[in-house]
Amino acid sequence: DRDYTYRAQHAPYPIDITGPWRNDYKWHVTVDDLEPKPTPFTDEGRRIFAATEPYHDYALRCMAMGLPRIFGAPYNMDISDAGSHYVMLYLEHNTPRRVWMDGRTAPADTLPTPMGFSVGHWEGDVLVIETTHLMSGWLDGSGLPMKGEGTRVEERYVWSADRLSVARTMTIYDPYYTAPLVRQRFAARGDDLDLTEQAPCDPDSYYRDL
Question: Do 169 and 28 touch, CB atoms closer than 8 A?
Answer without folding.
Answer: no
